[in-house]
Write a structure and sequence with these properties.
This protein has eight helices and no strands. It is mostly helical and 251 residues long.
Length: 251
């Protein structure tokens, strides 16, 4: 609404010096130029907006993949001796709580997280790396699963943190914002049959462009602003840890 009001104020000021009914001779060239600029701008803006939406969707998928790998590690720890099993599971819980309570806030605020998450991953890895399956193929398979899942947690954490910081470049915003102003400027050169029609034309187009720019801004970072995702995948993982401990863990 602020953008539309500002655009209408500019139109009102312009009409005092150059009424739109006296500028219809500009339409032959102006209309062609306006159509060319708006089509090019719409293509760029739509591409950026779709990319931002896809990045948000991919970021959500990464969180669920990481949470599932953590649950796999929690399950695979059952093949270890009780002391080592509890050590791995404690590290998995600490890591999950670190993501929910600290890393998520850092991603929301667009700040780099601490290295504590990596230390918890090392704490998961150490008992698994030191374990000996002996002659049991079943135990060896579970240990291999644990090692692979821990490796995947590391990779997915890196990907999640990278996506949290991956926004539009300054060059892209330099294209989008001046491009919107260029569309507005060319639109003002066009003549219209009545003064009221110019208000409607400028207001509608300015509002549409402003809404799309606002949507792009909100979706730019998948874990921040209006497009902020929730740590529901990790919260669900914690619930699964509790169920595993209560129903499937035996001393």
């Amino acid at each position: 609404m602020i953008v539309v009001a500002a655009a209408c104020a500019v139109v009102a000021l312009l009409q005092k010096f150059a009424p739109p009914t006296e500028r219809e001779h500009n339409n032959e060239i102006g209309t062609t130029l306006f159509e060319l600029i708006t089509v090019l701008y719409a293509i760029v803006l739509a591409f950026v907006l779709i990319t931002a939406w896809e990045n948000k969707h991919e970021a959500g998928q990464v969180t669920f993949k990481e949470a599932n790998e953590l649950v796999d590690v929690y399950w695979a720890a059952s093949s270890l001796e009780p002391e080592a099993r509890d050590e791995v599971r404690r590290a998995v819980r600490d890591y999950t709580e670190e993501v929910i309570e600290r890393e998520w806030i850092a991603m929301r605020d667009l700040e780099p997280p601490s290295s504590q998450g990596l230390l918890y991953i090392d704490a998961m890895q150490a008992p698994v790396a030191a374990a000996d399956a002996g002659d049991s193929e079943v135990v060896q398979a579970r240990l291999d699963t644990a090692r692979e899942s821990i490796g995947m947690v590391t990779e997915l954490r890196t990907e999640r943190l990278f996506q949290a910081q991956r926004g539009l470049t300054g060059a892209m915003w330099t294209v989008l914002v001046p491009g919107a102003l260029l569309v507005f400027a060319v639109m003002l050169t066009l003549g219209t049959p009545t003064r009221r029609y110019q208000f409607v034309l400028v207001g509608l187009i300015s509002g549409m462009v402003a809404l799309m720019l606002f949507a792009t801004y909100q979706l730019e970072y998948p874990f921040s602003r209006g497009g902020e995702a929730d740590p529901v995948a990790y919260e669900t993982a914690v619930e699964r840890y509790d169920v595993i401990d209560a129903q499937y863990t035996h001393e």
